[in-house]
Write a structure and sequence with these properties.
Elements lengths: L43 H18 L6 E6 L1 H13 L5 E5 L2 H13 L5 E5 L16 E5 L1 E2 L4 E2 L14 E4 L16 E5 L10 E6 L1 H9 L13 E2 L2 E2 L14 H16 L2 H22 L3 E3 L11 E6 L2 H4 L3 H17 L16 E4 L6 H25 L1
Parallel strand pairs: 2-3, 2-4, 4-7, 7-8
Antiparallel strand pairs: 1-9, 5-6, 8-9, 10-11, 12-13, 13-14
Helix pairs in contact: 1-5, 5-6, 6-9, 8-9
Amino acid sequence: MTNIALPAAKPANPNFSSGPCAKRPGWTLEALSDAPLGRSHRAKVGKAKLKLAIDLTREILEIPADYRIGIVPASDTGAVEMALWSLLGARPVDMLAWESFGEGWVTDVVKQLKLKDARVLKAPYGDLPDLNEVNFDHDVVFTWNGTTSGVRVPNADFIPADRKGLTICDATSAAFAQDLDWAKLDVVTFSWQKVLGGEAAHGMLILSPRAVERLESYVPAWPLPKIFRMTKGGKLIEGIFEGETINTPSMLCVEDYLDALNWAKRIGGLKGLRARSDANFKVLADYVAKTPWIDFLAKDAATRSNTSVCLVVADAEVKALAADAQAAFAKSLASALEKAGVAYDVGAYRDAPAGLRIWAGATVETSDLEALLPWLDWAFASAKAGLKQAA
């Protein structure tokens, strides 16, 4: 980097990682002082905390009363795996993939479960598959918001109300920031460390009555590990969805999730969370609109994520470079921002096109994103100057 003048101010919180994400504004360790550490999660106090986490999740996400909500192991990944291994195989399945996590679910279904009636609908980073091609007589697996591409489905209008198959939705960077249409979704999963900035390793699994009916009427042809088993004697194990977790949860992490949920209530619940994410995205969208050197990876404005905002370098001179040089240029921007202490963990995901990925979820302060923008210009100008010197 060359000696270009530094912007005057820095973001108060430089944590713009897309997971684990920034803690809520004002968070301190004191917020976790009520955690029942050293106690069993099966003790009355532990079960009460877990049940409260489920109840607050239902309240804030406005989940229908007849949907089950469970706390499960292994983050969003564990929740999705439980759904895939427990529910698929009864019908053909359509797998939608347009970024790395969707590709991961394709691998599970095609190469691990080896389902012969699996149809894969793919799109490159920046686009969605043709949603009109989805067959809803099949089960359908998709991510609502592509965390590594910044591309989301604009709404659930593409899902028919009279579908015959189940819709299994990985919503980990969408829940609490985007409008999930529960009537169109049979399985929804997410993790605590995204929009609410919670801690890792715990997932949420939400089941519609249709999904429960499938669990109680269908037995997969393959063995299920203990942590995937949700039925016993052909009936749903209701305790899982009342706070009796399959394995031992961290009560410290549970306390942190409760703190985040209570913060969400204080700022207006789902409406307040979505408004904060939308306001943060607008800061970045307005910047991109007036800044020639940068653009969204998501080509269609209607599909751009308001949480995991993926950006690419659009400068003509940089785009004329070889692919590895373009990647090195983008990495140099993220590195410079980190060294300056203004933005941590904002490089593109390893499998995604080179660029920047800036988290704009509800726990990020709009003022911090506004303070970041001049630093983006500084990093780009410095890197471009370095290119000219090298030439």
